[in-house]
Each structure stands twice: as C-alpha cells, then as structure tokens.
Specification:
Blueprint: H1 3-11, H2 20-37, H3 47-65, E1 68-72, E2 77-81, H4 91-110
Antiparallel strand pairs: 1-2
Helix pairs in contact: 1-2, 1-3, 2-3, 3-4
Length: about 110
C-alpha cells in the first residue's frame, strides 16, 4: 500500500483522483515536517512511519480545508480565518509523533 492510498482513505477520498497531485505535495510536506519535528531516521518502508506521514498529510489537508475566506467590509479585502481549533495538531497525531521521536532516541541511547 502506498502513502497516497492511506491519506485518501483517511480523508475518505478513495474513489477520486482529482486531488492526487495536491495530496502528493502534502505528503512531501508532511515528510519534511516530521523530520523537522525531530525524527531523523524516517523510513517509508516501515508501516508505522508510513502511517505517521499519512496522518500528518491528512492533518495538513484538513487544516487548509478548515480555512475560509472572510470579507472585511471596511476595506473590501479578503483574509483567511481558521476554525475554532486554530490549527492545533490533534492529540492522536502529536502522540504518534512524540512516540516516534522517543523511540528513535531510545534506540540511539541503547547503542
């Protein structure tokens, strides 16, 4: 199974391909962000790492989808506002990310 398939399943977009290019960009961005968060040995051959990247990409998709364009009637400009969660990472995703970082650190410390 590919990461794109996991992301599409998470987002319930299994039966469409019209956003595949966008989702592939989000997958690349998710990989970069996971590494930036502290995972140094990300392996897309490992199912747990694939799941982490897929969930992060789905989070980025939902974050973008939660933004809506709002009109500022005082000066006729448009600006994006986010929903009530203000882009906070879901606890489940934060826990997966932290567990992966701790696992990597424990493996480095044991060698």
């Amino acid at each position: 199974m590919e990461i794109l398939d996991l992301v599409k399943a998470d987002l319930q977009l299994n039966y469409t391909t019209h956003q595949d290019d966008y989702l592939k960009v989000l997958i690349q961005a998710a990989q970069t962000e996971v590494i930036r968060e502290g995972v140094k040995t990300l392996s897309l051959e490992d199912y747990a790492d694939m799941n982490l990247v897929a969930k992060y990409a789905a989070y980025l998709y939902r974050l973008r989808a939660s933004q809506s364009m709002t009109a500022d009637s005082s000066n006729n400009k448009y600006f994006a506002t986010t929903s009530n969660n203000q882009g906070i990472m879901p606890h489940m995703l934060r826990r997966l990310l932290n567990n992966r970082i701790f696992q990597e650190k424990a493996q480095r410390d044991s060698t």
